[in-house]
Amino acid sequence: MTLSNTLDLHADPDFINEIKTIRRDIHQHPETAFEETRTSDIVARELEKVGIEVSRGLARTGVIGTLRGKLPGDRVIGLRADMDALFIHEANEFSHKSVHEGKMHACGHDGHTSMLLGAARQLAKNPDFAGTIHFIFQPAEESEGGARVMIEEGLFEQFPCDAIYGMHNMPGIEVGHFAICPGPMMAAGDTWEITFVGTGGHGAMPHNATDPTMAAGSFISSVSTILGRNVPTYDAAVISIGHIAAGDYNSPNIIPARVLVRGTARSYKPNVRDLLEKRLQEIAEYSAAVHNCQAEFNFIRRYPPLVNWEEQTAIAAKAAAKTVGAECVDSETNPIGGSEDFSFMLEKVPGAYILTGNGVGEDRPFVHNASYDFNDEALPVGIAYWINLVKTELGG
């Protein structure tokens, strides 16, 4: 992989070391959803240091930096990075290990924030583009929908964008490689839960009870038929059970009165999403009725599918090719089952979301792993991509 001649960041090791220091500092001090005050202070300070106009307060800890090019032009683009960490006990022992027990940057948002800060610094130094950039530093991507909150609080009214772009690191892809596809790229991420309600009773006399464990068991054994018999073979979907709770460990001779079953549903199309909700409820209610119980059903729509716009996907792929060469860009990658709240932004504004390699091998665990760490070798690649994207979108 050779970075584009338009920006040889490897020729400026001091700059990259500064960005690496920022990245490791953020990693060492992880902050979870809507609590990213220290991280936001770092972002605002670094933007203001290079003369970028800063606005704060959207979604509590969000930061927007605005930079206008020195060439005439009215087009406005948004570049987004997420800032929050996860509730995970870090297993690493390096010097920048988390100092907050039970919290860590296990998804690389420390790297995303640092790459966008690095690009902002370089672009502010030489704003030879036509138009305006909004650097959007978003809180609470992990499960809390910070993008949705920013939008609800007026993100695109206060900072209108003609197009918006996001980027995420991906272990399993080599550093210096990118992957993207038009259309659905990430799945809707929904949570469902069912409480099966009976009377419970003595385990030795089940004929005197209505047993919700039987209803729950029937449901669990039947739920996979939704994918095999209801979802069309040309569509993709996932239903997984992640939590089952009932009774008390110390009372194995008691039939519980309630059994809770919770899980996740993933899909890429609105009609499939609707189908999963409908069939989960129907099977739950049928399973309960067969065993003379009740089913309390709840389907929580969290993040919609992330759908890349075709024109902006082509622009992103072109910028990636400028950065690392076309042979290092997979522009027709397969969609992945994870979900991302950047999807809310893509529902409002044309845009695209791209994956950048975080490295391969056993020393590069997948995201949301206690041994994960963002690969600092990817920093100059991501920074160069953002700058080439601006040049592709706004000229210069």
From TrEMBL:
<keyword id="KW-0464">Manganese</keyword>
<dbReference type="GO" id="GO:0046872">
    <property type="term" value="F:metal ion binding"/>
</dbReference>
<feature type="binding site">
    <location>
        <position position="109"/>
    </location>
    <ligand>
        <name>Mn(2+)</name>
    </ligand>
</feature>
<feature type="binding site">
    <location>
        <position position="107"/>
    </location>
    <ligand>
        <name>Mn(2+)</name>
    </ligand>
</feature>
<feature type="domain" description="Peptidase M20 dimerisation">
    <location>
        <begin position="191"/>
        <end position="286"/>
    </location>
</feature>
<dbReference type="InterPro" id="IPR002933">
    <property type="entry name" value="Peptidase_M20"/>
</dbReference>
<dbReference type="InterPro" id="IPR011650">
    <property type="entry name" value="Peptidase_M20_dimer"/>
</dbReference>
<feature type="binding site">
    <location>
        <position position="368"/>
    </location>
    <ligand>
        <name>Mn(2+)</name>
    </ligand>
</feature>
<dbReference type="InterPro" id="IPR017439">
    <property type="entry name" value="Amidohydrolase"/>
</dbReference>
<keyword id="KW-0378">Hydrolase</keyword>
<dbReference type="InterPro" id="IPR036264">
    <property type="entry name" value="Bact_exopeptidase_dim_dom"/>
</dbReference>
<protein>
    <submittedName>
        <fullName>Amidohydrolase</fullName>
    </submittedName>
</protein>
<keyword id="KW-0479">Metal-binding</keyword>
<dbReference type="Pfam" id="PF01546">
    <property type="entry name" value="Peptidase_M20"/>
</dbReference>
<feature type="binding site">
    <location>
        <position position="142"/>
    </location>
    <ligand>
        <name>Mn(2+)</name>
    </ligand>
</feature>
<dbReference type="GO" id="GO:0019877">
    <property type="term" value="P:diaminopimelate biosynthetic process"/>
</dbReference>
<dbReference type="GO" id="GO:0050118">
    <property type="term" value="F:N-acetyldiaminopimelate deacetylase activity"/>
</dbReference>
<dbReference type="Pfam" id="PF07687">
    <property type="entry name" value="M20_dimer"/>
</dbReference>
<feature type="binding site">
    <location>
        <position position="168"/>
    </location>
    <ligand>
        <name>Mn(2+)</name>
    </ligand>
</feature>
